[in-house]
Fold these 3 entries.
Entry 1:
Amino acid sequence: MRVFPCPAIRRRSPLLLALLAGAAPVLSAGGAGAQEAVDAIALDAITVAGAPSFRETATGPVQGYRATRSATATKTDTPLRDVPQTVNVVPREVLVDRQETRLADALFNVSNVQPGGSIQGRSDTFLIRGFRTQTYAIDGVFMNQANNFYPVQRDLADVERIEVLKGPASVLYGRGDPGGVINIVTRQPSLVPTADASIQGGSFGFRRVQGSVSGPVPGTDGLAARLSVATQVDPTFRDLAGRDNSRFFAAPAITWNPSPDTRVSFIGEFTRQDSVYDEGLVARNGRVPLDTIARYYGEPFSRYNANANFGTLKIEHDINEHLMLRQVLNAQSGSFDVFAARANGLSANGLQVTRRTTGVNSTYASVDSQTELVAKFDWLGLRHTALVGVEYFNGYRRAYTTQGPLASVSFLDPLPGLALPGALSLQSDLKQKTELTGLYAQDQIDLGYGLQVLLGVRYDTGTQFYFSRTSASRTIPPEQELSGVSPRVGLIYRLAEPLALYASYTTSFKPQTANVLGVASPPPETGEQVEVGTRFDLSPDVSLTASVFDITRNNVAANDPVNTNYSIITGQQRSKGVEADLAGTLLPGWKVIGGVGYTDARVTRDTTIPVGNRLDGAPLFSGSVWTTYQFQEGAWRGLGIGAGVTHVGSRFGDISNSYKVGAYTRVDAAVFYDLNEHARFSLNLRNLTDARYIEQPFNATNNIPGAPFSVLATLTARM
């Protein structure tokens, strides 16, 4: 990147320069690339007067807490009131006011979404309407589905908005889980120069620096670039044998309009994570004791190192005023290494935690191509927005796992550092390759008289190779033949201008990885949802969304009662419930976002799990609300206050319902002050009552507790 010094930064925002200069030593710890990023931020931005007036788009910024448009549910820029399926949006302004640094915290603002476990501090998983999902999409492209989880925790430095499409969504996204899709929309480059940077410090040694700079690239008309970077160190409140968690993140992006009819964009993300392998607390006697939430059953050598990289190129060309061609090409790669102490369970007397040593080396890579044609036309007196497309996905992963003995440790008083790992031997050598081609079509039809219908269907076909070699011999299985049809139909009735009613039927499709005796191609896991809802604009700036849903998950792998080393595809699970979400500006300066949900998610058919058991991690009731008020005039102008409450009901920690974690209520608050149009100081207080609770139950030996009372101070400069 060429660097053009800009005196305007020094002239108009000395605080921005000071912040970025102070960030340089911290970022330099992340490598030379980090230092170059700081230099670019400090020098590239140029101040230009006369920014264009705001007009919301499906992929751009949102003013306030209420979004009005989205492309997550339709892959077209569509008003949310014209989508016959629940879509909740968390805009960047919410992330800034709450100073969120975790994706899990950001999604507490959405009803019926819970953190589903960090996979020992490695990644993010979530429960949406009771069903677990271990991946998400970025700008409409799923992260590698051949991998069973994304290997790093998502950074929010380049996030413009976070959108949750509730329920099955295979008609557009292909493989997927029945609970829904999380789609992260990234910040786009701007031809109007902008820059922002922040320095954060908080309880338990947390420290973070992040920045983003955007503007035109000199010498080429219509070419703009953005660079977002972040680095953080987080020792956490857990007693992790004196070790820290760290992450470095960089995201370059460009957009180019070579002609009025053609748009080109590219986004790349590069993440490096080095963290403690932390399984959390262990359940005993049907519950997880919370007397010491910092208790750690690992060892100082328990580490996790990962990197994740991807790039997405998108080209759109308007063939004419009615027809647009779009090509999206995504490439991903990454790896992770684990060497850690892992808990097996409890000794017979419950006084010792039995353990083993595990080593894992895993790599993955994938390509994803989407070619789409969007047409807008009138036919038979009706207005149509049609989408047809083809998607090709090819991905693989390999995980080589070893295991060895390790001494037990006291349940009540674990003392790390006293045990040495034993010799390691092969546990498994897993290889998986998935190749899928999906053909899909969708039509949004305006029938008039306030009625709209959405019709869609997708057909996926391909192959999957899944082989796990163990120390015992095993015959290499043939490739599985995969196929699935995913229909969708939705109806919207605009009863009045601010009120829309909708009903929909949607489906999901996911390749099966279970090993079924004598079956080369077991049927894929499928899901189907019936949903009825409404979207009501209480005012021009406040919207309420409410819905009732019923989701059935079919072809769930269950234990084979005859051949216990295999599975049979007969299981079924069901989730039904109701939810409501509110977002917007109540009065000038007064914003609110929140939601409440009730979900009854249970096993309805299985060979081993009793019918009626609740799905793990899914509370019956949950809800949250966050609101801020900023004085608009007078002596207090610029001062803002915020408060929020999050409540999560009790949950079972595993699908066998062998133990339970209690309900909790967390209270948060914030105070912030805009020193001027270029600088803000904020103080965020979390868990004011110092409540003790389990935030993320995963299984009997993996239960991550919520953080106690903590304080986060942030100084932000922007241009």
Entry 2:
Amino acid sequence: MVATNTDTELDKLAINTIRTLCIDAVQAANSGHPGTPMSMAPVVYTLWQEILRYDPTAPIWPDRDRFVLSVGHASTLLYSALHLTGVRSVNPDYEVLGDPAVSLDDLRHFRQLDSKCPGHPEYRWTAGVEATTGPLGTGAATSVGMAMAARWLAAYFNRPGFELFTYNTYVLCGDGDLMEGVAAEAASLAGHLKLANLCWIYDSNQISIEGSTELAFTEDVATRFAGHGWQVVRVQDANDTLAFARALSEFQQETVRPTLIIVDSHIGYGAPNKQGTASAHGEPLGEAEAAAAKRFYGWPEDEHFLVPDGVYEHFANGVGHRGRRLRAEWETLFERYRGEFPELAAQLDAMVRRQLPSGWDSGVQAYPPDAKGVATRSSSGEVLNAIAKNVPWLMGGSADLAPSTKTRLTFEGAGDFGADNHAGRNIHFGVREFLSAAVANGLALSKIRAYWSTFLIFSDFARGAIRLSALMELPVIHVFTHDSIGVGEDGPTHQPVEQLASLRAIPGLDVFRPCDANEVVETWRTVLPLRHEPAAIVLTRQNLPTLDRDKYGSAAGVASGAYVLADPPGGAEPEVIVIATGSEVHIAVQTYEQLTAEGARIRVVSMPCQELFDRQPEEYRRAVLPPHITERVAIEKASTLGWDRYTGFGGSIIGMHTFGASAPLKELQTRFGFTPENLTDVIRTHLAG
């Protein structure tokens, strides 16, 4: 699908409509970035009007091309395109509505409360926004997951004569994106995987907020990407729509390499003889400069948010007509597919609605009591494999640590995703934590049930993408092992202390730290059905006993976030409540047994997920932590930050206040107070008080 003539007067009028809408939106908000939208309007126009397989009336059509605005600060460029092409809104139940995704009034209220045009594009807030990109580089990285998803979906669902998934992913990125390390991670992996369905359009304008990119960015981008295994095409003027269309044609003809199209542009009006300044990149133009820009475009200076006659119709006859035809053809094909392959069609229906197949957890079994037990990373790997057999679109991998995180799918047919096997479900991300999480987001945006893993300490590298999974409400599963000072001799650099508190601070992220194999089982049972919430599962390297659930509370309590694991005999009221997570639950249980034998009345609460517990009805929370029982102790091998809301000011918290040390685990536990003896002493002070 190659562009035709995009050099008519109507084409120019449409391009300048995009530009002036962007100018007016930024000026009305007195906030935003007008430079890139002005200079890249011809590029976005050509891509949308001439190339994209996209139906504005069906913006969640599964085989649509994806357009990702990695330069999220240029959001008015996307909003103008969504408005002019007539993209329809979509509700949370995936129903396409009749109202526009972006109205002219939304553009008038750019960056204002409740407008569908926030400062940066937000997934789930504005239909047509394929990803929340936000921080530079992240959108480009996320696109790799989207391109991988297209390959996997084609390998799994397509059949001869039924090419259901053929879409491409296009990204608009800039100098700032390519300065970020995650973009290099992404480019490297995309080249390695030979994702020929991925096209990055690089706005090479040589301007950043501080000024010329000569200040800090003088590398040969073309050579770098060629080294990554990409096809590199150059367009010397962003206004040359025919040259850009030819570059897109070269991308479409490439079958092995991803493509980088370098587009030379000029921040400002978008013309070499009207180059703006850095202020045009990061600030509104101002009334005088906005008027001058409109004069340059031949636009009425006193008109605001003007869409001239014929522009809407022009887009409707271009992307609208083409997209509607392609989508109708696809739907006809899918109905025939449903008749030929009803089981696969039903799976696709479930997948796109983020539903699970019936019997998805049928292979998961409870673990018998075992004093020696098993590391929760190991039981997690077993549960993951049992579930993945029943959920074909559950896939993921690790940042080069699968043997340690136990996240490899080992059953027959799982396979490795690679350049020569797009059906594989094990992903080798390499030592690229940020990219791993960003790719998982991209997979989830394509409705694949995605997970990735690393050691908990390295979650810091991926925090930006973890945060975006919560912001986008994507059910990505972040698996972290080596969860505490329990990594022992590796020392403080590898001993996570503040990471649990940091992850718990992310709104919308459920953080689970199960205490034994059966809590692991219930954690996965709780996490998998989530449709709009990401989860972090935090697991041990060391073995933990498997508790006797006939003696202690049922692990099904995980679904409530916290539950009573042990209580005083005979229904007596507790004197002290001990709250613990993960491996420290067993310290609490040992202490409970000793003090109960001495006649003390102790309640042990396992709290694998604070976020879930906080969402429970008040009646349940009060039943687990009765407000009148104020003698409380919390114990966790991590920062104490946040635990006071459960212990109260009069409670005690046994936790970490330093970065740990390098020593065998038993010595570390003694040094930092994670022993039954120390917990017993602390509880006795409360019993005496």
Entry 3:
Amino acid sequence: MRRLYSTFIFCIVAMAAMAQGWPKDYSGVMLQGFYWDSYADTQWIRLEKQADDLAKVFDLVWIPQSGYCGGRSMGYDDLYWFNNYNSSFGTEEELRSMIATFKEKGIGTIADVVVNHRRNLSSWTDFPAETYNGVTYQLTYNDICSNDEAAKNYQVGPNKDTGEGWDGMRDLDHKSENVQNNVKAYLKFLLNDLGYTGFRYDMVKGYSAEYTKMYNEDSKPQFSVGECWDSSNTIKNWIEGTGKTSAAFDFQFRYTVRNAANNGDWTQLGKQNEGNWPLVSAKNESGSYRQYAVTFVENHDTEKRADADQDPLKKDTLAANAYLLAMPGTPCVFLTHWKAYRQEIANMITVRKAVGITNTSATTNLASAKGYYAAQTTGTNGKLLAVVGTNAADYTPKGSEWKKVISGYHYVYYVSDLDPATIVYPEINTVEEKDGEYAGVPTFCTMEEGERCAFFEAPISWGSQIFVWAWINNGKGEDYLGANWPGVNATKIGTTDNGNSVWKWTVTATTNPDLIIFSGAGIQTVNMKFTNGGYYFGNEGLKTTVTATAIRHIDQDNPNAAYTVYDLQGRKVGTSRSSLNKGVYIVNKKKIIVR
């Protein structure tokens, strides 16, 4: 009887550990390692090079969905789950290297998991067949919800959607055993093969929370957080629906901070203490839901974008982050904020960790006025008082125990029960990483007089062959050379110092095209205006133009005159006429014939 009782207790403990969703009393901080169209900043090789600095302050890095999506994509039109990981952010080899480097330095990588919907291969209802560990996984038309828009013209499955519908792609029927088996295998592949630490589930209101519970109990991630974009009570109910196997992003925290900053009324931060705020709140059942709150002040869906405002935080970014990083929950810092304020955000996180603030720490308001808000959070090693707002510097805390540690634009941090002299702040490289970025036209990019052409610098992840698709702007979008997609081969003419390949395409038709696309390894640019001699860089478009120069002979020049001479592949081959064999070379961006 004693043995049965012990086994029963063991099972309860094991089930509780398995269903934690997000670790209790967790003191880590997460970085959202991307923003919308962050194709350059979020290259895997670029993030990996920052691992040393990131490891000084962050415990988790959330990255975009990393499978191939059929072209240039942020990953939310997911296509391949097992067999193709050459995405807009790099190759599979680069992805694995980054995750391994992060893990070695103590950083967990969070996968963006998109299983509410899925893209198709060529029609509305066909999905790729993928083989992994000897098993072939494939969704069929029968795995599409019956009320998906594809049902208007195609055969789909028998079951209605268990959540909100979306017209962007095929809504997956999570009642389907085949969908469940595919998702379970996919999540285990992410954890056990690619090496991810946990999941960020996209658009979780699109299917019932019970399926997140099913998938988490099967795959057992260390961390799980859902994008339940709604009111606090809806978020709370979703967490309950997952059996507390997942945390959730605290959208109400974000909106409260945004409102306070944008309106210049910092008393609005006090709304977090109202009884209807079940996550990060002073009145939420002694913090029972704080464990499951992943807090943030901006993300890729709310930020200001080039095309339109997405309801952004418009000012006081530092004050917003200072408040975020002083509060309970698990803070998630936005990449653009980190890029702009690396050292200050690193210092804030250092103070947070020195005080010992966790996702379940207690917090209370000490003072509030339109120009400032002062909140105290109690950690395991002391207390942190964060004062934020336009007049933050005017507030002086009562009591001699408070000691000022750091301050900046519209924020001040004080600590008690902790010697500020014991806090050691990391040195963060604040110089923007330039590897992989446009650095100017290489010397080997030349044009003959009268030549019509375009140049394209491709990041390493774009593969070993670049293609050109060009067309006349007549509304048909057809390649004006009569080629099939992806068009004709470009010619590789050299390699830049940072390892990018440079390609050239020469116009052979009698007229120039109006528009042009470069592509490679399933990644492509947007539609771009063709400019003769244009030098295009990755997804950033036209950077400059190369001007035509006539070939010049230097056989009559002083043979001992000093030159910096390159061959047509961009390699330095000499410094004077006498050091060269006969041939064609580049000197001062001019093509030279040596006879």
